[in-house]
Amino acid sequence: MFLKVQLPWNVIIPAECLDAKGLMLQRQIIIRLLEAFSSKKATQELGYFLAVTTLENIGEGKVRQHTGDVLFPVVFSCLTFKLYRGEILNGVVHKVLKHGVFLRCGPVENIYMSCQKMPDYRYVPGENPLFMNEKMSKIEKDVVVRCIVMGTKWIEAEREFQALVSLEGDDLGPVSDEASLH
Predict the structure, then answer these.
(1) How far out from the chain centre does Cα 31 lie?
(2) Which of 92, 106, 105 lies closest to 144 in space, CA to CA?
């Protein structure tokens, strides 16, 4: 789920931001790195970029011929988040449909659980639709559900992942519901 990785990156500092003071230059490099890092969002190999943890190295700057900007190669460590098949996760239900539910987990917004993967649960329509089993356990909006990842899909155009999950397995299902909150 969470990975700590070390990455090389190129940071470009515009000529007008250059300054004789080394501390200001280092600050500019860190600011530009964080801006580039946050706009990247995710990659198929590493998952979602969450946080830069340490700046390992700032290489020697190279002046770009036509612009006068300076390119600094940097190496840093960061934390990423990626779902894997077979992994157990806790997701929060954000949409209930007749044929299944959509959950969120961390930065992953599109996690789908089909009603066919919710053994013993049946759909209950209404203003606030939900799925319920014979033990009155509910899967409804805002409920945390422990489930297993069946598969993931990378959507390049959106730079995000989608996942399919299931309740088929031991100790899976709602971990909080309205009854336990009151």
Answers:
(1) 22
(2) 92
The DSSP output letter for 154 is E
Angle ∠(175,177,179) on CA atoms, nearest 5 = 130
pLDDT at position 178 is 47
Q: Compute how many other C-beta atoms are within 10 angstroms of the C-beta atom of residue 99.
A: 9
Q: Which of 99, 108, 113 is CA-nearest to residue 148?
A: 113
Say how far apart CA 47 and CA 154 lie, in whole Å. Answer: 9
In DSSP terms, which residues pair with 105 in a beta bridge?
108
Q: What pLDDT shows up at residue 182?
A: 38
Report the chain (182 residues): mean pLDDT per 10 consecutive residues: 94 78 78 91 94 94 88 96 96 97 96 96 96 95 97 95 96 71 40
Amino acid at 47: G
Amino acid identity of 123? Y
Neighbour count for residue 101 (Cβ, 10 Å)? 28
Say which DSSP state 141 is in: T
